[in-house]
Amino acid sequence: MSARPWLDRETRFIAARGQPACLIDLALSRDIDSHRILKGTGLFYDDLLSNEPYISAQQFHRLIDNSKQLLAADDSAFLFGQQLLPGHYGPTSNVLLHADTLLQALQYLQRFKALLSPLCAPVMRMDEQMLYLYWLDSFESGQNRQFLLEASMAAVTALTRQLAGPNLPWHYHLEYAEPSYIEQYWVHLGEHLRFQSPASFMCLPREHLAGRVRQASAVVGQIAEQQSRQQQEQLAGEESMTDRLFDYLCEYMPRLAGLEQVAGDFGMSTATFKRRLQREGTHFQAQLDRARTLIAVDLYLCRGFSNEAVASYLRFNDRTNFRRFLKRLTGRSPNDLRQWLGS
User: In 3D, which of 30, 253, 248, 240 has the Cα closest to residue 141?
Assistant: First the structure.
């Protein structure tokens, strides 16, 4: 495990002039007063103009809460997302624009997630045919989850269209029911949509990943990567506690002994570990369920595992318990889930 500390909900690591400013600008463009959009965030409009303030995930979520209420428009998350990547963030924008290939750009997005996607972590998986890009909460998002998914998927869609052309055949899986404003998904994402998925992810055939990015400069790209790495090293941490816990659970799942082992590997007592998760608005069982769900989807999709193999990998010794777990988390039995994903 990395020795670096992690980011918590109250760590001020998000440049307010970056992605938060995009959301503020969207509100101002619709004649919403800056005081109303910033209410309760601890951020003031004059600060954006005269200083370079940083805000926490908690403050950013409050800004999103205000925006959803005041904008009250079905396209808000999509329009916000289209402004996020590559953005105007100096080196971290250049590292995306001057990546050698589309695959490298997406790898940079994952590597520099604290700078480029601070609230919603991209998790990339691949098999021989497809790339899968999952989206996980870095900080418990609650009712903002759907807004963040819409914005994140719109951001990556807009970025990849800019880098590789408009005809990339992205497919989108969303964990919630089809919304009433489905036409906004058609306009901003396309028609390849599946709702009530066991996890939220985008997928793209691998054949589209290797082509060189148009107008990319190798020298500018290398300099931008160096500068982005330095910029990320200056942050209090590179990822949230739950991001690091997810990576840990994915690595150790086949030999996971229990909560005491996890807490010890994080350098804490079990009680302290529970308290730290509680401060982040979550608990260990929720994080374990999240990791197991995504791993199960990944094993079915990418590796073609049988039900028995997936259950064993996730340390379910009883088939009934495994079936209950999948039914509770995905709404589907193991056989139904395999068939649904396979279709």
Answer: 240
Cα–Cα dist 311/319, whole Å: 7
Contact criterion met (CB below 8 Å) for 186 and 110:
no
What does pLDDT average to in each consecutive run of 10 residues of the chain (343 residues)?
Answer: 80 96 96 95 90 95 97 97 95 95 96 97 95 97 97 97 92 97 97 95 96 84 96 94 96 91 95 96 96 95 92 91 93 92 82
342 Cβ neighbours under 8 A, 6+ residues apart: 300
Annotate 6-51 with DSSP letters as a single string: PB-TT---EETTTHHHHHHHHHHHTT--HHHHTTTTT--HHHHHHS
DSSP notation for 140-184: --GGGHHHHHHHHHHHHHHHHHHHH-TT---EEE-SSPPPTTHHH
- What pLDDT is attached to residue 192? 97
For residue 123, what are its two tokens? 């998790």
Give the DSSP H or E segment for 194. Answer: strand 193-194
Residue written as token pair 């909560």 = 259
Are the CB atoms for 334 and 307 separated by under 8 Å?
Answer: yes
β-strands 120-126, 130-137 pairing: antiparallel
pLDDT for the residue numbered 166: 87
